[in-house]
């Protein structure tokens, strides 16, 4: 295997075969590199793209980054069907097999402890959004106001404008508060049915392209055997509150729990 070594994940040895047609980053098939009680899942990547300098430049290229992340995720997803992988960071590259083995040797204790903790478990992601009607800014335009005469072309007085603006602020704050309370209750309920949980920063709608205001962005570590029950709990909350959207993603490799417990 020529080229640099791109490392996707670390696992314990497993017997099941990976998909025969599976390709990874730069189109190369992933291989298993055994070292003592660990396996690194690697593939060869060209130095012209993955040496330190070109890789740094590529990470600023959104199209390249998206394609690479998709290929990386494809390998992790394939691993998740046959074992419990410990995903490594996108763009983890070593000079050769020897460099990968040195990394496994140096971090062996941490890898083994984390793999023991994650064995037989997957990550589920849950997000809660306030739909536009409940979470829109009090500054946002509301359209013609027939009650106060806008539709008829009448001018609104300064007093009327301020009164309406104050009412919008109160409605906005009330809707947001109810959504945050709902999200807090949901998180407490789901955390009680998971072995571990992580609260991530809310996602920006501008960056994610998702409508609504994100008030919960959480990950839950759940045993595979209990995943069906966990999904049913989430599904029962959907549509529970008007103006609130609950999204479930997974099951994933346990990215949010790959480090040592905080």
From TrEMBL:
Transmembrane segments: none
Compartments it resides in: Gas vesicle
Keyword Metal-binding on entry: no
Protein name: Gas vesicle protein
Similarity-based family: Belongs to the gas vesicle GvpF/GvpL family.
Keywords (A to Z) from UniProt: Gas vesicle
Biased composition (Basic and acidic residues): 160-176
Cellular component GO terms, alphabetical: gas vesicle
Taxonomy, superkingdom: Bacteria
Gene Ontology biological process terms from the UniProt entry: gas vesicle organization
Region (Disordered): 133-176
Coiled coil ranges: none
Primary residence: other
Pfam families, sorted: GvpL_GvpF
Keyword Metal-binding: no
């Amino acid at each position: 295997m020529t080229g640099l070594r791109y490392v996707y994940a670390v696992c314990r040895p497993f017997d099941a075969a990976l998909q025969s047609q599976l390709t990874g980053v730069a189109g190369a098939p992933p291989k298993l590199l055994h070292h003592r009680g660990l396996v690194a899942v690697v593939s060869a990547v060209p130095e012209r793209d993955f040496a330190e300098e070109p890789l740094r430049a590529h990470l600023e290229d959104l199209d390249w980054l998206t394609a690479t992340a998709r290929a990386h995720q494809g390998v992790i997803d394939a691993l998740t069907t046959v074992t419990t992988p410990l995903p490594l960071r996108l763009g983890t590259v070593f000079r050769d097999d020897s460099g990968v083995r040195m990394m496994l040797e140096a971090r062996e204790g941490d890898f083994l402890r984390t793999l023991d903790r994650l064995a037989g478990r997957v990550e589920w992601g849950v997000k809660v959004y306030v739909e536009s009607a409940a979470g829109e800014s009090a500054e946002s335009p509301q359209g013609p106001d027939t009650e106060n005469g806008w539709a008829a072309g009448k001018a609104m007085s300064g007093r009327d404008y301020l009164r309406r603006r104050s009412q919008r602020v109160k409605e906005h704050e009330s809707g947001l508060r109810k959504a945050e309370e709902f999200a807090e209750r949901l998180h407490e309920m789901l955390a009680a049915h998971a072995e571990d949980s992580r609260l991530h920063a809310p996602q920006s709608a501008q960056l994610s392209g998702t409508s609504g205001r994100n008030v919960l962005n959480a990950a839950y570590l759940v045993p595979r055997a209990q995943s069906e029950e966990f999904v049913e709990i989430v599904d029962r909350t959907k549509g529970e509150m008007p103006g609130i959207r609950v999204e479930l993603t997974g099951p994933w490799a346990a990215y949010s729990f790959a480090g040592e417990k905080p």
